[in-house]
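Submission checklist for the structure archive. All mandatory fields must be present; incomplete records are returned to the submitter.

[x] Identifier: NADH-ubiquinone oxidoreductase chain 2
[x] Organism: Rhinella crucifer
[x] Residue count: 302
[x] Sequence attached
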Amino acid sequence: MNPYALSMIVSSLALGTILTLSSYHWILAWIGLEINTLAIIPMMTKTPHPRAIEAATKYFLTQAAASALILFSSILNAYILGEWSINSPTHPISATLLSIAIAMKLGIAPFHFWLPEVLQGSTLQTGLILSTWQKLAPMALLLQLSQSVNLNLMLTLGLLSTIIGGWGGINQTQIRKVLAFSSVAHLGWMLAILKISPQLTLLNFFLYILMTSTLFLTFMFLNTKNMYELSTSWSKTPALTALSMLSLLSLSGLPPLTGFMPKWLIAQEMVKQNMIMFALLILLSTLLSLFFYLRLTYSMSL
C-alpha cells in the first residue's frame, strides 16, 4: 500500500477514536465511530482476496447498522428529554437501544456472528487493530452510559457472551477465530459487571487489550495462522513461546497470572451484590474458554 495512503488511514483511525473519546455530544461521538469504521476498511481490503473483501463487506454492514441505531436512539433521547450530552441521564428506551447498538459494534453475543468471520478474513495486523483499537471508542461510550443501562439486559448479554464465546471457540483450529471467540467471552465479563462497577469493566478491558496485543504480536512474529503450525514454534523461539504460553493461560484466567485478577474481583463484587447463582454460572462458562486456551497452550508446548 502507498505509504501516504497508509498514513492517512492510520491517522484517520486515531482521529476517529480520539474524537469519540473526547466528545460529550452524541452526534460528535457518532461521527468519530463512522470515521473509525471507514478508516479500517481499506486496511482490510489491502490484500485483494475474496475472503478479505467478504470480511470488509460484513464488517461495514454490521458497523453501519449499529451506527444507524446509535444515531436513531440518540435522536430519540434528544426528542424525549431535549438532552444531547452523553453523560446526562438517558431515557430507558434510548439507553436500551444504545446498549444494543454498542454491543453490535463490539461483537457481543448474540450480535457476535460477524466477528469470527471478519477476523478470519483479515490479516493478523488488521486483526490486532480490530480486537484492540477498534473496541476503545464503543467501550468508552458504554462506560459513560453505564448508569443508565438496564441491569437485566446487561447481565443477560454478559452471560450469553461468556457461554457462546467459550462454546464457539472449542471447535476451532484457526487461531484468529479462537481469538475472536475469546474476545466475545471477555466482553461478556465486562458487560456483566458494567452497571454494578464500571471501574472493574475498565480494568478488565485494559488487561484484555494488553494480553490480546501480546498474543497477536507473537503470532505475527511466528507467522502462524492455525494450531498445527504452532507445534513447530517451540524449536524456533523457545523464550517467546514460553512467554506466549503464559499469556494464553493468563487470558484464560488461571490463578497466579494477571488474567485471574479481574475475574476474581468481578466474582467477589457479584457475591457482595447477592448474585451468587449468576457468579457461579459465569465462572462455570469460563471453563469452556479454559479448554481451548489449554488446547492452544498444549499445541505450543509440543
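[x] Structure attached
Curator remark: Residues 1-138 form one domain. The chain has a mean pLDDT of 96.
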